[in-house]
Structures are given as structure tokens and as C-alpha cells.
Automatic annotation (TrEMBL):
Residues 279-436 form the MmgE/PrpD C-terminal domain. One of its GO terms (molecular function) is lyase activity. Belongs to the PrpD family. Residues 9-249 form the MmgE/PrpD N-terminal domain. Pfam families: MmgE_PrpD_C, MmgE_PrpD_N. It comes from Actinoplanes lutulentus. This is 2-methylcitrate dehydratase PrpD. It comes from the Bacteria.
Length: 460
């Protein structure tokens, strides 16, 4: 058995988890995440990254174990479906993100863990309750691993690595639970996943949000499934990828955070740290967009009267979204689109016409951005927007936490998520199936076969 306390504790916890032991609020939050992420992946299948990765999966599909979004009728082996659906699930920047209770940003667990768990659940004909339990477990293990490294900022600055890749470990735990692996083989799965799933940071420099979707989500989801499948066949890895030689903590752990691996395991559930998105853009942009739209509405601002826009964000997130080539992770571009359109949903964020609109480009050119190190502690996902008007007037708005954030009251409910997805899903599958999908997710614990849920979205 594993030689360290963390590996033993995590694997022991994993094999004992079950839906009936989840607190009601945790189970409900997990079902909301599954609903949100499946919708996100299905809609993301219409974007370039989703279409290309679906064609890749179709060309190599082999055994028809799980549905693939982005190409009607396509089914593929579970690991390949996880690769494709994870990529689709981050293609639109509408997927949720996560932060710890002490404000550490851990990345995008949903498009890693949910597609991995769903693909294996389809393969195994697992129940909805088993799926919910596996996703909650994937969050609990994956988020703790990322937290122990200090999260996104130190992993990028110190090692040039994308911290969210570590959610491949959570995906491996989720897949292992659905496959019924014991403690030792679950640990093998985690080790095998880690060494397939890690990614550098260069994808932030691309323009079309394709490899970002693949390496933020798809690759890690596939690594988790592959690791678990290999372990289930008897393939071995180290039984301590956490604290053992060359493991996560010795390689990337942040001093003082070693205890995060097992802190409050079984008492504090990581799904409660999910931050739902209600703007289709990189998460550091959300508070700024909300503040800008509040100012526009409150003061009835004529866009032609705007002479300048200044945004103040926490230092690390500011660097992530400062004038990027990808419009959906460019603060300047998304502020321009949001102000012109009056909102920033999926259609606005991905509209070629809006992205090249002369007024959008004019407003984009007026935006200046400052990274404020004090914000890293005081409001790590907040923003202050100052708009300067041609008559000399200046108006300002601060947003501490954007809508959907774990520390924003009121917390989003099922109605908020239904409103987010209804229009997008109805235009693709009709009102009846959209409502059927929503109701199935709300009562997911009663579904006998996860494949029945997926089939509502993807008729095969």
C-alpha cells in the first residue's frame, strides 16, 4: 500500500465514497455543475475547436463506448470521448471555474472532470447517483492537489506550467470510482494520468481558442480516463504520486500548503468552491464587464461620449487577459463587445461581426489596464472600472465578486442556469428536449443509466 499519509488518506476516502453520504447541498451543487458543463460542451461542439476535435475522434472512434459532441452520431472509446468533450467544454469560455476558501484560483475543473466521468459512466452504464458521486470525488481530490501547489500563479511563474492540468488527477479518481478500482489501482490511475496530462502555458498566445480548449481541458480529461482504464487492466504506476520522490509536492508544492492535500477531506467539499460563469469570457474579465454594464445602465452612457476606460484588476489575472490575441480572453476586446451589445452571452462573445465592429474596436482601443497587487488579497476576482466621458465627467464602479462567484450573494440557483442555457439549447434541440434535459439533471440521482441523460442531448 502507499507509503505516505496523503496517498493513503486520498485513496481510502475515494473507494468509500457514495452518493448517499453526500450532504444534500453538495449533491445539488454537483448536479448543477453536471448540467452546466454538459450544456457547455454540447454548445461548444459548434465552435471550431469542437468541430475539429470531433472529426479527430470520429476518425479514430473504434469501440462505441460514449457519445462525442460536435458531430452527430459519433461515439468513441471513453478516453477519446473525454478528449473531445473536454475540448468542446472549454471551447466557449462559458464553463465554470474554481477557487479555494483562501482565494486560490485552481482553474477549470468542470471540463476536465465532468466529461471524463460521463464518458466512463456511459461505458459502465452507471447510474446518475454514481455519476454525481464520482464528479464530487473528482473535485475533492483534484482541487486539493492544485491547492497544494499554490494554484495558477506560482505554477506559471515558477515552472511555466498550467496548474489546471493537475485536474487530470481528479478525473482519474472519478473514473476509478466508476470502474470500481481498489485503493492501490486508484493510486496507479492517478500517477498514470499525471504523466499524460500536464501542459505548459504557451496556448494562451494562440488566436482561435483551439489548443487552449484542448490543453486546459480535453487532454487532462482523457489522461484521467486513460490512467484509470490502464490501471483497471493491471498497468502499474507509482503508488505515491503525491509526496513520493518526483511527485507533485516535491516537484511543485508550495511550502506551507502541504496539508491542503487532505485538509477537511469528507467535511469540506470542493464543488462548493465552483464559480459559475454568466459571461462567455475568461473569468478575470467578468467583474470588469459587470461593472462596465452597470455604469452604462445607471448613467445612460452614450457610447460615443466615452473618452477612456480604465480597468483595475488583481495583478496575476490582469496579465492573463491583457490584450490577448484570443478575443474571449482579451479584457479590452470583451469590454468593447459587452458595451456595444449590452450583454456578453455566448452569441455576442463569439460573433465575428461584433468582434470586428468599428465601435467595438474603438472602445477596445480606449481601454487601459492596471494590475493591482493589493487586489490579490482584498478582492482576487474583483475589478474597478472607471469611465471617462468627453464632457470631463468620470464615473466608477467596483465589483468585488462577479455573479456566480462562490462568495457572491445570492448564490446562483437552478433557475439562473436554466436561463443561461435555455435559448442556446432550444435553438439546437428544441424546447421539449431542452426541458427534458433540465429536468433529468435536476433529478439525476434517479436515473438508472447515465447514457439516458446524454441521449437527450445527442440523439444517436
Amino acid at each position: 500500500m502507499a507509503s505516505t499519509k496523503a496517498a493513503a488518506a486520498l485513496s481510502r476516502y475515494a473507494v468509500a465514497t457514495m452518493y448517499s453520504a453526500l450532504p444534500e447541498g453538495v449533491a445539488e451543487r454537483t448536479k448543477m455543475l453536471i448540467y452546466d458543463q454538459l450544456a457547455c460542451g454540447f454548445v461548444g461542439g459548434d465552435l471550431p475547436a469542437g468541430k475539429v476535435i470531433a472529426r479527430f475522434a470520429d476518425a479514430h472512434r473504434g469501440v462505441r463506448e460514449a457519445a462525442v459532441f460536435g458531430l452527430a452520431g459519433c461515439r468513441a472509446p471513453a478516453a477519446l470521448a473525454a478528449l473531445a468533450n473536454g475540448t468542446c467544454g472549454h471551447a466557449d469560455e462559458f464553463d465554470s471555474v474554481h477557487s479555494t476558501p483562501d482565494f486560490i484560483a485552481t482553474g477549470h475543473p468542470a471540463p476536465v472532470i465532468v466529461p471524463a466521468a460521463v464518458a466512463v459512466a456511459e461505458r459502465q452504464s452507471a447510474t446518475g447517483a454514481e455519476l454525481v458521486n464520482a464528479v464530487a470525488l473528482g473535485y475533492d481530490t483534484g482541487a486539493r492537489v492544485v491547492s497544494a501547489t499554490g494554484g495558477s500563479a506560482p505554477m506559471q511563474a515558477n515552472y511555466g506550467l498550467y496548474a489546471g492540468s493537475l485536474y487530470c488527477v481528479g478525473a482519474a479518481f472519478a473514473a476509478s470510482r466508476l470502474l470500481g478500482l481498489d485503493q492501490r489501482h486508484t493510486l496507479y490511475a492517478a500517477a498514470l494520468a499525471l504523466n499524460q496530462g500536464m501542459s505548459g502555458y504557451s496556448f494562451f498566445a494562440e488566436r482561435r481558442h483551439m489548443s487552449k480548449a484542448l490543453f486546459t481541458a480535453g487532454q487532462a480529461a482523457a489522461a484521467g480516463v486513460s490512467g484509470a482504464m490502464l490501471a483497471s487492466l493491471g498497468f502499474e504506476g507509482t503508488d505515491d504520486v503525491f509526496e513520493g520522490r518526483g511527485g507533485i509536492l516535491p516537484s511543485w508544492g508550495q511550502p506551507g500548503r502541504e496539508g491542503e492535500l487532505v485538509r477537511d477531506l469528507g467535511r469540506e467539499f470542493a464543488v462548493m468552491g465552483a464559480n459559475f460563469k454568466f459571461y462567455s469570457a475568461g473569468y478575470p474579465i467578468h467583474a470588469a464587464v459587470e461593472a462596465a454594464l452597470m455604469l452604462k445602465e445607471r448613467y445612460g452612457i452614450d457610447l460615443a461620449a466615452i473618452a477612456g476606460i480604465h480597468a483595475r484588476l488583481p495583478e496575476h489575472p490582469a496579465g492573463v487577459v491583457d490584450d490577448r490575441g484570443m478575443p474571449t480572453i482579451s479584457l479590452q476586446h470583451m469590454l468593447g463587445v459587452a458595451l456595444v451589445a449590452g450583454r456578453l452571452g455566448f452569441d455576442e462573445a463569439h460573433s465575428a461581426a461584433l468582434q470586428s465592429d468599428p465601435e467595438v474596436l474603438r472602445l477596445k482601443s480606449l481601454v487601459t489596464l492596471t494590475g493591482d497587487p493589493d487586489f490579490e488579497v482584498s478582492q482576487p476576482r474583483g475589478a474597478v472600472i472607471t469611465i471617462h466621458l468627453t464632457d470631463g465627467t468620470t464615473v466608477e464602479q467596483r465589483v468585488e465578486h462577479p455573479k456566480g462567484h462562490r462568495f457572491r450573494d445570492p448564490q446562483p440557483g437552478w433557475g439562473d442556469l436554466q436561463q443561461k442555457w435555455n435559448e442556446l439549447l432550444i435553438s439546437r434541440i428544441g424546447a421539449q428536449r431542452t426541458d427534458e434535459f433540465y429536468r433529468a439533471c435536476r433529478t439525476l440521482e434517479t436515473i438508472d443509466d447515465t447514457g439516458d441523460l446524454v441521449a437527450i442531448l445527442v440523439r444517436i
